[in-house]
Every structure is written in structure tokens, then in C-alpha cells.
UniProtKB/TrEMBL annotation:
It comes from the Eukaryota. It is found in: Membrane. The keyword Secreted does not apply. One of its GO terms (cellular component) is plasma membrane. The keyword Ribonucleoprotein does not apply. This is Late embryogenesis abundant protein. PANTHER family: NDR1_HIN1-LIKE PROTEIN 3 (PTHR31415:SF4), OS05G0367900 PROTEIN (PTHR31415). Keywords: Membrane, Transmembrane, Transmembrane helix. One of its GO terms (biological process) is defense response to other organism. The chain crosses the membrane at residues 6-28.
Length: 181
């Protein structure tokens, strides 16, 4: 008798922990997966300590969670060249918040355009000229995801080709962005 109740008790415990594990997998949030799927510059000129830029980006965000939803109120983009920020704007603002359900993805197209004073050193200017010859620039994007209850940040290290440079060697490569806490 004692042996059987022990077996029954332990099976119940195993069953309960299994249910808990599955529950956690199903309902726990997982970080959104953030990709820059395409990028190109129609302008990136540095004269008179001023950068004049026009950069188009396509972004895709996926919520890999099973049941957890993310409510986006805004996504802000910050663009950096050689560690200096040259552009900040909201890619999108949602009112009411955009509901990104588990397993679903959504895409956005945005253009960062304008001019900004940048103080590049001589070595940085020669790097700029090298990248100009190559036809693509190393640009870092930081996106701030304004979510219902918390904000998250992602960083993307991009090699953005000039649109005029249409050689296939400089095709933009789909880039996955990294989460920072
Ligand atoms: C982004 O997607 C649009 C179509 O949705 C496409 O026309 C465009 O070439 C893509 N790339 C960039 C950099 O905008
Ligand atoms: C460069 O900037 C200076 C001061 O900001 C201005 O006086 C000058 O006209 C500018 N030159 C050009 C070519 O834009
Ligand atoms: C983008 O939108 C958020 C939320 O509305 C706001 O806090 C933030 O200041 C905005 N950023 C810019 C650059 O306008
Ligand atoms: C630009 O950078 C140089 C050296 O890095 C510095 O001496 C100068 O003060 C800076 N100018 C501005 C306007 O920030
Ligand atoms: C690609 O580049 C070549 C040479 O720069 C140019 O002649 C051609 O028109 C370009 N094609 C497109 C589709 O932009
Ligand atoms: C030139 O551009 C290509 C494509 O973006 C990149 O893979 C390569 O590393 C670049 N070369 C240099 C010297 O920056």
C-alpha cells in the first residue's frame, strides 16, 4: 500500500512540474527578434563639418513568444556614424498601441533624411573617404522600443551601400540586431 501511494504521489509531482514547464514556455515572454532587412543611402556627403544624409531602411520585427504579446507605443531610431549621432527620429508612433501577438511579425519602411554637424578628425575623414570609394558606410543604428510597460534597446551594426553604387558586391545583407538591457 505504502509503495503505491508513493508512486502515485511522485507521478503527480512529475505531472505538475511538466505542466508548469509547458506553461512557462507558452506564457513567458521572449525578446522580440529585430532585423534590418534592407538599407540604402541616396545621399551621404560630408562637407564643411556637416553630414547630409538620406537613408532608407526596411525593418522587420518578430515576436517569438508563443502567447505573450508586445504592445508598441513607438519605435525611435538613432543613427550613428563613427560614434557620433547624426539622426534621431521616430520610425513609428502608435495610438492606440500596436499589438504584436506571439508568433507574428510586422514590417516598416522609414527614411532618415537631413543634415547634422559632425566633428570628424582627420583620421576619421580619411576613413570616410575610404568608405566612399568602397561604396558603403558603417552605420550603427540604435532603436528604442517603447513598449507598454518597459522600454528595450537594440543595436544594429550596418554596412549601408550608396544607392548610386548598384554593383552586386555591395548588396546590403539582412542584419539581425542585438538586444541590450
Ligand atoms: C524596402 O521595401 C520596399 C517595398 O516595401 C522597397 O521598394 C524598397 O526598395 C526596400 N528597400 C529600402 C532600402 O527601402
Ligand atoms: C561653411 O560653414 C561656414 C560657417 O558655418 C559658412 O560661413 C560657409 O558659408 C559654409 N560654406 C559652405 C560651402 O557651405
Ligand atoms: C518618439 O515617441 C516616444 C513616445 O511617444 C517619445 O517618448 C519620444 O520622445 C519620441 N522621439 C522622438 C525623436 O520624437
Ligand atoms: C572638434 O574636434 C577637435 C579635436 O578632436 C577639437 O579640438 C574641437 O574643439 C572640436 N570642435 C567642435 C566644434 O566640437
Ligand atoms: C548602375 O550603375 C551604372 C554605372 O554606375 C549605371 O550606368 C546604371 O544606370 C545603374 N543602374 C541602375 C539601375 O541604377
Ligand atoms: C566594402 O564593402 C563591402 C560590402 O559592404 C564590405 O563587405 C567590405 O568589407 C568593404 N570593404 C572595406 C575595406 O570597407
Amino acid at each position: 500500500m505504502a509503495c503505491c501511494s508513493l508512486i502515485i504521489t511522485s507521478s503527480i509531482i512529475v505531472l505538475l512540474s511538466l505542466t508548469l514547464c509547458i506553461g512557462l514556455v507558452v506564457f513567458l515572454p521572449q525578446n522580440p527578434k529585430f532585423y534590418v532587412t534592407d538599407a540604402s543611402l541616396s545621399q551621404f556627403d560630408y562637407t564643411n563639418k556637416t553630414i547630409q544624409y538620406s537613408m532608407a531602411l526596411n525593418i522587420t520585427i518578430r515576436n517569438p513568444s508563443m502567447k505573450f504579446t508586445y504592445d508598441y507605443t513607438a519605435i525611435e531610431g538613432n543613427a550613428f556614424y563613427l560614434d557620433q549621432r547624426f539622426s534621431t527620429q521616430n520610425v513609428s508612433v502608435w495610438k492606440p498601441p500596436y499589438v504584436n501577438k506571439g508568433g507574428k511579425s510586422f514590417s516598416m519602411h522609414t527614411v532618415f533624411r537631413g543634415q547634422q554637424v559632425l566633428n570628424l578628425s582627420d583620421t576619421q575623414i580619411s576613413l570616410f573617404n575610404k568608405e566612399k570609394d568602397n561604396g558603403s558606410y558603417a552605420i550603427v543604428m540604435r532603436f528604442i522600443l517603447f513598449l507598454d510597460k518597459l522600454d528595450a534597446k537594440v543595436f544594429c551594426g550596418l554596412k549601408v551601400p550608396l544607392a548610386a553604387n548598384n554593383g552586386s558586391a555591395n548588396r546590403f545583407k539582412n542584419t539581425k540586431c542585438k538586444f541590450v538591457k
